[in-house]
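Milestone M4 deliverable, item 7.
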Amino acid sequence: VSYEEISRLLFVWLVAIGAIVAAFEGAHLGFDMVTSRVGPATRKVLFWVSQLLIGACMALLLWGSWEQVVAGWSSYSTVLGYPLALGAAATLVLAIGMLLVVMRDMLRGTPTESSETSVE
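Output delivered:
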């Protein structure tokens, strides 16, 4: 049954790291139904609003994840006995990584474009 705990923990980390890499490469699914129909000035405002909202959500995730990591140091997994903080640390790393991507995009003033061509 230990393989179930290990696979669950590794899956959480895989998703967290995969989300950071996808955001860094601009490969997340995009929703541009609104931004494709507005002018460049409005598109720029929507970009900044979305980046600020994402940053705020990641800051909340960072705060909550830190609280879970602190609480998880005194709780242990049932079978293997590792600290549950290891699972919570994945969302902590996710929040930090996504905040770095948001800051990079805000410094650039534009979102990262995917390396793949978009279908129109």
